[in-house]
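Regression test case RT-17, inverse folding.

Input:
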C-alpha cells in the first residue's frame, strides 16, 4: 500500500490551540505554492497510489481555480487506477458549492470536516472562525453534492466544558449521521496562544468524556476502530489506517512528513524556502531518519495498538524486553491476547501513551 499526503499550510487565521505549521492565506503566495507542489510531484515517477489525503492548515481556503489546478495535476501525474480513498479536509467557513463540485469531479470521495464543537461559545474560545449554523449548511450541501463518506472532527476537554456539555455535543453530532467521527482531547502545546495564556485542561474530565464517548457512540452504531476514531462499519479511514499499519506514504508540501523506502522524512517548514528549493530543483527534505529493525519493531507495536479491533500480531513482541512488558500488561489486564493478536483491554484505551511508552528500549 502506498499513500500520498499533501500539506496545504494556509488558514484564514490561526486557531488558539494549534501548533501545526500554517500561515495566513494570500492568493499570490498560494498560487506560487501550488506551482511548487505540482513541480514537486513531477519528481515521483511511475507511482500507483492507494490513498490520498489533502490536509492542512485549511485546504478548502484555496480558491476554486487553485483547487482545480492541484487536483488536475494529481489526477494526471499519479496512477489512480487502484485508488481506494481520496480525502480532502474542509473548514466550513471556506467552502462553496463550486469547490465541492470540483472535488467531486476530481475523484475526491471522502471529506473530513473540522467542526470541533456544536457550541458557538466553545468555538469562539478555540479561535475558530465558523459557527455551528455555518457547519450545518456546508454539511447538508456536501451530502446533496453526493459525498457519501464524511468524517467530523471534534475536540473535547475544552476549558470550562462539562461532561454534560460534551454529551449535548455528541447528541447534536449524531443527528448528522456522519460516516466517521474523530475525537481529540484539547492539548495545550508550546508555541500556541493557549500555552502563552496559561490555559489548562483536566486529565480527569477528559477521561470521563472519553469513557462516555466510547459507550455512547458504540450504542449508537459506531465501531471504535482506533484510539480516537469511530466509524460505521465499512467506513473506517483507509488512508489513516494505513499509517497505523506502518505502510509507506509520500509527502508533498512545506512541513509535510513522509515515509518511503524505510526512511522517515520531513520537508522544510517554510513556504517561501520550499518554493525556492523546488524551483531550483534542490532537496526540500530537512529531516531524514532510517528506520532500522529495532525502531521498526517499536513503531509497529506503537502504531498497531492504536487499531483497537486489529491490534498487533504477537510475533512483533520478539525480544525479551517486549515479552516482559507484554506479560506485565496482560497480567494487569490492560492488554489482552486474542488468538495471535495483542489488543487493548476495553477501558484502557485512554492510557495509550502511558502503556506504549514502556516498550521504548
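Golden output:
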Amino acid at each position: 500500500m502506498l499513500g500520498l499526503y499533501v500539506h496545504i499550510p494556509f488558514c484564514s487565521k490561526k486557531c488558539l490551540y494549534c501548533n501545526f505549521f500554517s500561515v495566513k492565506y494570500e492568493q499570490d503566495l498560494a498560487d506560487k505554492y501550488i506551482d511548487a507542489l505540482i513541480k514537486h510531484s513531477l519528481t515521483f515517477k511511475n507511482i500507483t497510489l492507494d490513498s490520498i489525503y489533502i490536509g492542512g492548515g485549511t485546504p478548502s481556503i484555496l480558491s476554486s481555480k487553485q483547487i482545480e489546478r492541484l487536483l488536475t495535476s494529481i489526477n494526471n501525474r499519479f496512477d489512480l487506477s487502484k485508488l481506494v480513498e481520496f480525502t480532502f479536509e474542509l473548514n466550513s467557513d471556506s467552502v462553496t458549492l463550486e469547490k465541492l463540485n470540483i472535488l467531486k469531479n476530481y475523484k475526491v470521495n471522502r471529506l473530513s470536516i473540522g467542526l470541533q464543537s456544536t457550541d458557538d461559545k466553545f468555538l469562539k474560545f478555540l479561535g475558530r472562525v465558523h459557527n455551528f449554523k455555518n457547519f450545518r449548511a456546508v454539511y447538508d450541501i456536501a451530502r446533496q453534492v453526493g459525498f457519501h463518506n464524511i468524517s467530523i472532527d471534534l475536540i473535547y476537554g475544552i476549558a470550562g466544558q462539562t461532561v454534560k456539555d460534551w454529551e449535548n455535543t455528541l447528541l447534536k453530532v449524531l443527528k448528522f449521521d456522519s460516516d466517521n467521527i474523530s475525537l481529540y482531547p484539547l492539548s495545550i502545546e508550546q508555541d500556541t496562544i493557549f500555552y502563552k495564556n496559561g490555559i489548562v485542561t483536566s486529565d480527569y474530565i477528559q477521561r470521563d468524556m472519553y469513557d462516555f464517548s466510547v459507550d455512547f457512540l458504540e450504542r449508537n452504531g459506531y465501531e471504535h476502530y482506533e484510539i480516537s476514531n469511530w466509524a460505521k462499519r465499512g467506513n473506517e479511514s483507509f488512508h489513516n489506517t494505513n499509517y497505523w499499519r506502518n505502510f509507506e506514504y509520500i509527502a508533498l508540501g512545506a512541513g509535510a512528513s513522509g515515509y518511503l523506502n524505510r526512511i522517515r522524512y520531513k520537508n522544510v517548514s517554510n513556504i517561501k524556502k520550499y518554493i525556492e528549493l523546488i524551483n531550483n530543483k534542490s532537496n526540500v527534505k530537512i529531516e531524514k531518519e532510517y528506520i532500522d529493525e529495532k525502531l521498526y519493531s517499536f513503531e509497529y507495536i506503537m502504531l498497531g495498538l492504536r487499531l483497537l479491533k486489529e491490534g498487533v500480531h504477537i510475533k512483533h513482541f520478539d525480544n525479551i524486553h517486549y515479552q516482559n512488558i507484554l506479560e506485565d500488561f496482560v497480567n494487569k489486564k490492560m492488554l489482552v491476547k486474542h488468538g495471535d493478536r495483542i489488543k487493548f483491554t476495553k477501558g484502557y484505551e485512554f492510557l495509550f501513551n502511558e502503556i506504549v511508552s514502556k516498550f521504548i528500549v
